[in-house]
């Protein structure tokens, strides 16, 4: 038995949403997303104040799975992945279930960013990517122990990925990322002209 073992892992799940038909479904969602942005004047105003350079429906239409049948199909597909993730976490739901409660759209052109944050009260959060341009900003996660390391030395520049203070997931269109909602994460500023389009969501234990 090794003298050193890893404990208390932070599990991040990434997978393609669909094995078949994903491209057509993604195109339908992307087309509807641009129509939602054009329709959502309150969301445009909220984004101008709180989401500089970009658009999000978070402040106006944050339950798209209850507004659109297409987004409800997305919810059904994500449900299956969340069940796999919960099993990997060894969660005992005690007769309850994991329910998508929030679902919102993000369109991030060049320069748009979303700083480090968590999703309070939710248990699983995630992002599904509709459009991820080459060279676009990925999803950056922070080691949850970082604020407790106090006087610890810095990690070596060539440290193994699992030992670094941050890790970036550069997802592609059609891919899904799930994580526990307490895990701090951010989206750095988009460095390319093509917009990064994604759907974010939360699941609660009910």
Specify the biggest β-sheet: 6 strands, antiparallel
Please provide the ordered H/E string of secondary-structure elements. EHHEHHEEEEEEEE
Q: Which structural class do you get from the secondary structure elements?
A: alpha+beta
Percentage of residues in strands: 25-35%
CATH homologous superfamily - what is it? Answer: q2cbj1_9rhob like domain
Mean pLDDT: 96
Helical fraction equals 25-40%
- The CATH topology annotation reads as Jelly Rolls
Strand order of the largest sheet: 1-8-5-10-3-2
Overall CATH architecture: Sandwich
Low-confidence stretches: none
CATH class (first level) name:
Mainly Beta
**Using DSSP, what is the number of strands?**
10
**Count of DSSP-assigned helices:** 4
Distance between the termini: 40 Å
The dominant shape is globular
Topology:
Layout: E1 13-16, H1 22-39, H2 41-50, E2 55-56, H3 64-67, H4 69-88, E3 98-108, E4 114-117, E5 124-131, E6 139-142, E7 166-169, E8 175-180, E9 185-187, E10 196-205
Antiparallel strand pairs: 1-8, 2-3, 3-10, 4-9, 5-8, 5-10, 6-7, 6-9
């Amino acid at each position: 038995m090794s003298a050193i073992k890893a404990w208390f892992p932070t599990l991040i799940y990434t997978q393609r949403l669909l094995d078949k038909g994903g491209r057509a479904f993604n195109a339908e969602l992307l087309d509807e997303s641009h129509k939602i942005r054009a329709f959502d004047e309150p969301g445009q105003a909220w984004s101008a104040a709180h989401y500089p350079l970009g658009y999000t429906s978070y402040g106006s239409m944050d339950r798209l799975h209850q507004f659109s049948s297409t987004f409800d199909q997305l919810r059904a597909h994500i449900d299956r992945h969340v069940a796999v993730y919960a099993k990997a976490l060894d969660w005992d739901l005690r007769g309850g279930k994991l329910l998508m409660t929030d679902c919102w759209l993000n369109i991030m052109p060049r320069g748009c960013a979303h700083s480090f944050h968590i999703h309070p009260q939710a248990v699983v959060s995630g992002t599904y990517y509709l459009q991820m341009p080459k060279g676009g900003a990925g999803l950056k996660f922070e080691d949850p122990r970082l604020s407790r390391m106090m006087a610890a030395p810095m990690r070596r520049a060539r440290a193994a990925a699992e030992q670094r203070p941050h890790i970036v997931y550069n997802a592609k269109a059609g891919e899904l990322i799930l994580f526990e909602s307490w895990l701090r994460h951010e989206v750095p500023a988009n460095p390319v002209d093509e917009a990064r389009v994604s759907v974010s969501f939360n699941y609660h234990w009910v």
